[in-house]
């Protein structure tokens, strides 16, 4: 099995633009919902989740696994699929990263309270 990545394909361009537009949504939600002091690690987990979501969409719609793309795939489907799927996967990975970091050290999960 050979991975086919064609950056000049309309499906790749639509998926990549959708990925770029979904990053601010997913990363800002991850930062806002984080309950630990080291929010950068949660945002990094969200970025990895969004990247995995992009790979999933491009593998299923685009030419990553199939040499000729599937019949019903087009750049619009790749764009909207990516822009709707990547923030969800990013938020799921951010929550998992947040929980894993909070379980490893209780000091990282304590936030200062303002009185």
UniProtKB/TrEMBL annotation:
The chain crosses the membrane at residues 12-33, 40-66, 78-101. Keywords: Membrane, Transmembrane, Transmembrane helix. It comes from the Bacteria. This is PTS system, sucrose-specific IIBC component.
């Amino acid at each position: 099995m050979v991975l086919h990545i064609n950056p000049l394909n309309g499906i790749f361009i639509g998926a990549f633009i959708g990925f770029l537009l979904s990053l601010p949504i997913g990363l800002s939600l991850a930062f806002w919902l984080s309950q630990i002091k080291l929010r950068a690690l949660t945002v990094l987990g969200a970025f990895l989740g969004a990247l995995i979501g992009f790979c999933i969409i491009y593998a299923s719609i685009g030419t990553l696994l199939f040499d000729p793309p599937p019949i019903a795939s087009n750049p619009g489907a790749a764009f909207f699929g990516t822009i709707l799927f990547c923030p969800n996967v990013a938020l799921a990975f951010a929550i998992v990263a947040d929980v894993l970091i909070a379980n490893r050290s209780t000091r990282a999960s304590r936030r200062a309270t303002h009185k």
